[in-house]
Each structure stands twice: as structure tokens, then as C-alpha cells.
Write a structure and sequence with these properties.
The chain is built from 17 helices and 16 strands. The chain has a single domain, classed as D-Maltodextrin-Binding Protein, domain 2, CATH 3.40.190.10. The chain has 483 residues and is of the alpha/beta class. It is globular and about 75 Å long. The termini are far apart. A hairpin with a 2-residue loop joins strand 14 and strand 15. The strands form four sheets. Strands 3, 4, 5, 6, 9, 10, 11, 12, 13 and 16 form a ten-stranded mixed beta sheet that branches. Strands 1-2 form a two-stranded antiparallel ribbon. Strands 7-8 form a two-stranded antiparallel sheet.
């Protein structure tokens, strides 16, 4: 349209600053912006001729990247070569393909998994910070309470849209004080695995469904000379003890704490008492479990099972990949999973996650890059025109790692990968009966569970009664809670 005598024209242009699957930082932490933030730009233009409307940007065009920024990113040193490659791909993606691009450089530091909590604690105690970091579920409360990590949903509310896609036990594990703190890196359940060949040779028609049947079958296998260590479970003091201990308790319907973090387990009766007693009897009287399990973690159990030393083990699901790989395992083709024996068949699950460090929120560009990184690693992003859980899928296919993103079960590549090593119907059924570890929402959980590991061994060796052990465990919790 032509306008001959116009001095001032005001145009308002609204730009929607997002595409599906990209996190957007807030204007200020006190009032987090949504992922779909509308910015209105007003221009005053002097004209003395016909006005041509300003062209809207095409779907392929993007604003100039924010930054440059450098992110401090830390995790444990598992498959460092793959982590390095993922980081390089992220740096290229976030500067060119992200809906809000950021010129980003990642500085990666790592430590062993067993030392990682100490590494992070020492970093912050020495005045250091992190922008993004790995965590395990049992460290979240401690780190959040210290202020080292902040609620992800406070800076990116739309992260809660992922909840329907994530395994419920992982959502629980990543939640502290009612707020979601992260997205999952890897999650898994503890599974009951058996050697089909040993069962066949022993004349056993089906794997056990109760702990009484586990004992009965293990005794028969040992008496027939098919295995001197029919049942193995990692009970060395450490994080793998926690997973096995909770799995066996949950299998009998046991509970440790209520919603108010009050201990509810009995010290002379009930599922917790029953399972500790069952283990003590299996180790000392029946000798179907060797005492060396008190020095074994899950990887040690994995190696023994691969060698054909045991009929039954409790291990995380990712170990099935090696169990059934010819050349790596003597039992390849014979390792099977069944539902966890017990009254409820429930089991324990654990979640490793990506968290937002407190340093990330100090700068808008750094915050945006950090949110982009967490979603790129743990969420669904569009890379080269394809929207997917790219990184979780890669870890699953290439390393056999478990995942929390439920839609991945519909992926043909995932199905091919996992069905080659396990009955995925049983695996998914067990996942649905998986619980996160009770008590982890307490900041003192890490200290308490360390006490539990050492104290429980006393009962398993019959150095003290199960009642005395459970009473000590309960009083330790009560004391820590009151501090």
C-alpha cells in the first residue's frame, strides 16, 4: 500500500524463539520464562515513499549465536572416547542447529565413578563450580541441599513435559523437594539372571519364582556338582550393594521409609528381616552363596557368571550384553532373565542423570548453552532434521545401556539390539515393577547407606544378630535425621 505523507510508522514484529525440543533460558531466575517466549520489537522508521513490509525470516534462518561461552562439564570416565565424540558433535550442533544457537566450548573433566562424589565435593569445597555434571541418584539430595546443583525446572519449566516419556522410578530419582532436577543419562533395573544350561543339566524345568525355590534349586545344583557357587550377588560395601539390597527387599514387598522419611521396617520381623536372614542362612548354613560375595561388586559377579561359575545372579540389565556375546562369555546363548523371585516380583532401579550446576545460572548465554547441553544429552532434539533421543539411543545401541525414555522401546534399532541379548518382554515387565531407592530424598542418605553397607555384613557373617543389625541401622537414620 502507498502512503504519501507519512512521517512515522511503527511496526511490531513478534518472533517465536523456539523450535520443538530446545530449551530456552528465563529472563530471570525469579520468574522463569517458558520455552516459547515471545519478544516484541518496536521500530520507528522515517519514510517519504512507499513502505515495503519487512520480510519474515525463513524457517532455515537463525539469529547470530550467543556467546562465546565455555562450559565446565564433569562426569565419570566411562567410555571417554565416546563422550569426547558426543561433546564435539554438541559443540557443532549448538552453534548451528539449535533453535537458540550458542557459540560454545566444553571443558570436560572426569574421575572414576567410585570417586566421583568425592571429586565433586572437593571441587566445591575448594571454591570451584560446574555448569553441567553427571550425578547418580543417591548423590542428588546431598548436592542439591548444598546448593551445588539447582532445579532444572526453575530455569526451564517445559522440562516437565518429559515426565510422561520417562520411567516413573527415574522421575522419582531425579526429583528433590518436589522439583525435577535433571534428565536421565542411563537407568537400569536389577534383574534375576539364570544359566539355562545349568538348569537343564540339573533337570529343573523352570527358573525359581520364590526365594524358597531359589534355595531349593541352588541346593540341588550344588549337590549334583554342577556349581559350587550356585547363587552370586554383589555385597561388597559400595553402590552395587545398595542396588542388590533394595532389590531383594522390594521383591518381598518390603519398605524402609514412609513419605515423611520415618523408618517403618521392623527389626525382628517383616520383609527386610526376612531377606537379611535368608542371605545369612544361604551364606553360612546352606553355603549356596560363598562368603566371597561380601567382597564382590556387580562387575565381579558378572565375570564369574560369564565363566559359568553360577546358576543365578542379580545384576543390572546392561550386563546381559556381555553375558550373551560369543567370545566374551562362556555362557553366551544360555543367560536368561526371569522376574525377580519373591512375593511381589518388584525390584530396585537406579538412575544416572545430567544436572544443572549453580555456575550456569550466572550468565544468560552460559545458561542457554547448559540447558541446550542437558537436553541434547538426555532429551529429544532435532539433529540434521531428525528428532530423536539421539544420545540415549547411541548409548543403548553401542554399549547396551538401559534407558529411561520409554518411546525408545518402539525404535526398531533398539528392539534389534536388546532382543539379541534378552527377552525384551520380560525386561519391560520387570521395569514396570521397578522402584527407586527409598530414603534418597534425605540429604543424609549417602552417609546412612555407607553405614548400612558395613553394618549389614555383620549380620551376614553372623557376627551379630539380624535384629541388632537392623536396630543399629534404624537408630543411625533417626540420629542423622535429628541433626
Amino acid at each position: 500500500m502507498t502512503m504519501k505523507k507519512v512521517l512515522l510508522i511503527m511496526f511490531a514484529f513478534a518472533f517465536i524463539m523456539t523450535t520443538a525440543g530446545c530449551a530456552t533460558p528465563p529472563a530471570a531466575p525469579a520468574a522463569p520464562a517458558t520455552i516459547k517466549e515471545t519478544v516484541v520489537v518496536t521500530q520507528i522508521v522515517e519514510v517519504e515513499k512507499e513502505i515495503t513490509p519487512v520480510a519474515q525470516p525463513s524457517g532455515q534462518e537463525q539469529a547470530a549465536p550467543l556467546g562465546p561461552v565455555t562450559l565446565q562439564f564433569s562426569g565419570w570416565n566411562y567410555d571417554t572416547a565416546k563422550v569426547t565424540d558426543i561433546i564435539a558433535k554438541y559443540e557443532a550442533w549448538v552453534g548451528t542447529q539449535a533453535a537458540i544457537p550458542v557459540d560454545t566450548t566444553i571443558e570436560w573433566t572426569d574421575a572414576g565413578y567410585g570417586e566421583f562424589d568425592t571429586f565433586i565435593t572437593s571441587t566445591y569445597a575448594g571454591g570451584g563450580t560446574r555448569d553441567v555434571l553427571y550425578s547418580s541418584d543417591h548423590w542428588l539430595a546431598k548436592w542439591a541441599e548444598a546448593g551445588w546443583v539447582v532445579p532444572l525446572e526453575d530455569y526451564w519449566p517445559e522440562v516437565k513435559n518429559y515426565v510422561s516419556d520417562i520411567s516413573p522410578f527415574s522421575v522419582q530419582a531425579m526429583t528433590y523437594n518436589g522439583k525435577l532436577y535433571g534428565l536421565p543419562y542411563y537407568s537400569d533395573s536389577m534383574y534375576f539372571v539364570y544359566n539355562q544350561k545349568i538348569l537343564d543339566d540339573a533337570g529343573i524345568a523352570a527358573p525359581p519364582t520364590t526365594w524358597a525355590e531359589v534355595r531349593e534349586q541352588a541346593l540341588s545344583i550344588k549337590q549334583q556338582g554342577l556349581s559350587q557357587t550356585p547363587f552370586l550377588v554383589g555385597l561388597a560395601p559400595g553402590s552395587w550393594f545398595d542396588e542388590a539390597f533394595y532389590a531383594m527387599i522390594y521383591s518381598e514387598g518390603g519398605a524402609l521409609f514412609d513419605v515423611n522419611l520415618e523408618p517403618v521396617f521392623e527389626t525382628a520381623d517383616g520383609p527386610v528381616f526376612t531377606m537379611v536372614e535368608w542371605l545369612a542362612t544361604a551364606i553360612n548354613d546352606d553355603q549356596i552363596i560363598p562368603k566371597k560375595v561380601l567382597e564382590m561388586a556387580a562387575p565381579d559377579v558378572q565375570q564369574a557368571f560369564k565363566n559359568g561359575d553360577a546358576a543365578f545372579v542379580i545384576v543390572p540389565g546392561y550386563m546381559m550384553a556381555e553375558f550373551n556375546t560369543p567370545g566374551l562369555s562362556k555362557v553366551a546363548g544360555y543367560a536368561k532373565i526371569s522376574m525377580m523371585p519373591g512375593a511381589t516380583h518388584q525390584t530396585d532401579g537406579f538412575t544416572r542423570m545430567y544436572l544443572l550446576g549453580n555456575a550456569a545460572v550466572e550468565d544468560e548465554a552460559k545458561l542457554q548453552a547448559s540447558l541446550n547441553l542437558i537436553e541434547y544429552l538426555g532429551g529429544k532434539t532435532t539433529v540434521d532434521g531428525v528428532a530423536d533421543y539421539h544420545v540415549a539411543k547411541r548409548w543403548s545401541i553401542e554399549n547396551g545401556l538401559g534407558f529411561s525414555a520409554l518411546p525408545l522401546w518402539q525404535d526398531p534399532a533398539i528392539e534389534r539390539r536388546f532382543s539379541a541379548m534378552v527377552d525384551t518382554n520380560v525386561m519391560q515387565a520387570q521395569k514396570k515393577l521397578t522402584q527407586s531407592k527409598q530414603g534418597m530424598s534425605a540429604p543424609w542418605f549417602a552417609e546412612w547407606i555407607s553405614f548400612v553397607r558395613a553394618e549389614t555384613q555383620k549380620a551376614l557373617l553372623r557376627d551379630e544378630t539380624t535384629t541388632d543389625t537392623l536396630e543399629a541401622i534404624k537408630q543411625q537414620w533417626i540420629g542423622l535425621k535429628s541433626e
